[in-house]
Backbone:
């Protein structure tokens, strides 16, 4: 294996970072040395073999036999094969030893550089000085995300023009009815909707919320409703000085790495769009490394009450939020073995022992910062200490 080359240089983000500027290459090579030989670059003379060689894009969920049939013949002929667009190209179900190799790669061999890890830990430490427990939100409300989703958020002609220009980048992006896309739950929630969901679940104004995000579409004005619901709102920019963040600021992948580290350490992780980062976080730190809560919005059902929330009391709204979020609150056994993407649910690498699971549940209640009540057989945070009138005022 030749060390991969990130394709961020040609994406919307225009990030020129190489693999070794994000990840610890020497650790990656040594940790997997018993599994596969890895080199940092092609040997002299081999680069010429890539001239005229078209990159291969294997089908999604490609099985081992698929690789043997599609890739191996060309590899034997050309000696060098370049695989492009590689995320989620491997089948979820593989032989046990191959699954274990996946886990060694995903959760042990791939780690950030010392520089990124150090800065990430500084952010975590600063969050911990503000609150013993904190919630991390992967907002995913950047312009490119909204453009790709095909969704409309009420910004009038200005929004249609701005996002319309960006949508031209994706030639295969189908023209869809934005209202129906949103009704079907395929749009990221707005920052305000995420805030209302969390308040409906019982997270109070006192909660410290770390927002992992790139450039938010609409800027501070878009974030204002979320900040009104959660005044203790933090980002990597608010937790650091410009000088501290300068080595990372021009590189979207390194900034995302910092967000990943903070989300990884959070007590509860909230994802607004179930993309690559959210899935690997759910798989790694919330399941493989030991259970921690991941909250996924049930966007399809929540949309119904968001559009009608002015016609109900806050208690009615809160009750419906809790009801609709049943099964989306990150319970240890929420997803059965083999369900979902392997990145998100690596069950074949996790030992399942009844005693260990019972101890784990006890530990959760000891460490979880909010009280529990059984609503639909799913542990939810209670509304202990919330100012009900403030919710009514916000709704009005």
Residues:
């Amino acid at each position: 294996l030749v060390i991969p080359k990130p394709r961020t240089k040609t994406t919307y983000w225009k990030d020129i970072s190489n693999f070794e500027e994000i990840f610890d290459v020497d650790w990656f090579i040594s940790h997997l040395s018993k599994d596969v030989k890895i080199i940092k670059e092609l040997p002299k003379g081999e680069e010429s073999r890539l001239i005229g060689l078209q990159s291969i894009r294997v089908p999604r969920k490609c099985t081992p036999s698929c690789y043997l049939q599609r890739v191996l013949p060309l590899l034997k002929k050309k000696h060098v094969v370049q695989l492009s667009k590689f995320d989620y190209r491997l089948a979820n179900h593989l032989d046990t030893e191959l699954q274990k190799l996946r886990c060694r790669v995903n959760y042990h061999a791939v780690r950030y550089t010392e520089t990124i890890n150090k800065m990430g830990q500084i952010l975590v430490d600063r969050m911990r000085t503000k609150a013993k427990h904190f919630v991390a939100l992967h907002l995913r409300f950047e312009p490119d995300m909204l453009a790709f989703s095909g969704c409309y958020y009420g910004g009038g002609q200005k929004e249609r023009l701005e996002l319309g220009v960006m949508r031209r980048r994706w030639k295969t992006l189908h023209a869809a009815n934005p209202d129906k896309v949103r009704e079907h739950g395929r749009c990221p929630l707005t920052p305000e909707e995420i805030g209302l969901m969390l308040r409906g679940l019982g997270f109070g104004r006192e909660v410290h919320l770390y927002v992992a995000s790139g450039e938010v579409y609409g800027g501070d004005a878009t974030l204002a409703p979320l900040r009104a619901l959660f005044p203790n709102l933090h980002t990597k920019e608010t937790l650091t000085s410009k000088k501290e963040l300068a080595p990372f600021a021009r590189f979207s992948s390194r900034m995302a790495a910092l967000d990943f580290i903070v989300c990884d350490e959070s007590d509860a992780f909230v994802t607004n769009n179930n993309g690559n980062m959210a899935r690997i976080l759910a798989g790694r730190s919330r399941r493989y490394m030991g259970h921690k809560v991941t909250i996924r919005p049930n966007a399809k059902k929540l949309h119904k009450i968001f559009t009608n929330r002015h016609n109900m009391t806050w208690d009615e709204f809160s009750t419906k939020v809790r009801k609709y979020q049943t099964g989306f609150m990150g319970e240890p056994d929420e997803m059965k073995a083999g369900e979902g993407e392997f990145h998100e649910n690596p069950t074949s690498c996790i030992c399942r022992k009844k005693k260990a699971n019972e101890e784990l549940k006890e530990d959760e209640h000891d460490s979880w910062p909010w009280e529990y009540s059984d609503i639909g057989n799913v542990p939810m945070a209670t509304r202990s200490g919330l100012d009900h009138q403030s919710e009514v005022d916000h709704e009005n």
Summary: Residues 114-130 form the longest helix (17 residues).
